[in-house]
Specification:
230 residues, mainly alpha, Arc Repressor Mutant, subunit A, Four Helix Bundle (Hemerythrin (Met), subunit A), 9 helices, 66% helix
Length: 230
């Protein structure tokens, strides 16, 4: 008899989890496993299985799954429960359309308020991205880089919305790098954006960011068109 696949066996949990940290630990652990491919799209995540794995009650598991659903990493299927979402779908193109609206505005608002420490932090993330080859870590660093240039925007709700959309970017980067057999992406756009931000050239920075996001959206469109034809 063929043994059923056990995707949760790929997740290591070290030691008991303090009750007050349970939700966040479960959320981050599952999030990382989804982004790095240990939990592929279509995987059903049953609350009791997760509670047993993490050694907790079902309550923090339920809360963690809700957070992951809000980040579009999971969706709920009738009679199946929480299921890992597709890595790339047509909504990814819509995500980039929304990112264009949100991030261009955040960058405009943030650049006049950025200081030397902010610029140094952005360049630090670029340096790490240049040498990093782990796809999940690249996604995380990319998110941190973008937020380092946006975070001075005074509109906190805008920044929270952008953080949610950047979760989609992490999934896209993993897909993009894996599908093209790449270990990393060029940092030309990130460097140009940071240079413009340091020079307080808002329009140049916005122009670079617009092109950066439009190129990513076009990559997804091309992939989806090829998939539809095959």
């Amino acid at each position: 008899m063929t043994e059923k696949p056990r995707p949760l066996s790929k997740i290591a949990v070290s030691g008991p989890i303090p009750a007050h940290l349970a939700r966040s630990v479960i959320e981050e652990t599952l999030r990382a496993a989804i982004l790095d491919g240990r939990l592929p799209s279509g995987t059903a995540l049953r609350q009791q299985d997760l509670a047993d794995l993490f050694g907790v009650s079902r309550m923090p598991v339920r809360e963690a799954l809700r957070q992951l659903e809000a980040q579009s990493l999971l969706h709920v299927v009738p009679h199946k429960g929480a299921v890992v979402a597709e890595l790339i779908g047509y909504d990814a193109v819509e995500t980039y359309g929304l990112r264009l609206l949100l991030e261009l505005e955040a960058l405009r608002l943030s650049i006049p308020l950025l200081d030397a420490e902010d610029i140094a932090q952005a360049r630090g993330y670029i340096a790490q991205l240049e040498s990093e080859t782990d796809h999940a870590e690249i996604g995380r660093l990319n998110r941190l880089f973008h937020m380092s240039l946006y975070h001075r925007a005074p509109n906190q709700k805008l920044l929270r919305l952008i953080e949610l959309e950047l979760n989609e970017e992490e999934r896209f980067l993993r897909f993009h790098l894996s599908s093209m057999g790449l270990g990393k992406l060029t940092q030309d756009d990130h460097n140009a954006m940071t240079d413009a931000a340091e020079a307080k050239d808002v329009e140049r920075a916005v122009e670079v960011l617009r092109g950066h996001l439009e190129k990513a959206a076009q990559t997804i469109r091309n992939y989806l068109e090829r998939s539809a034809e095959s």
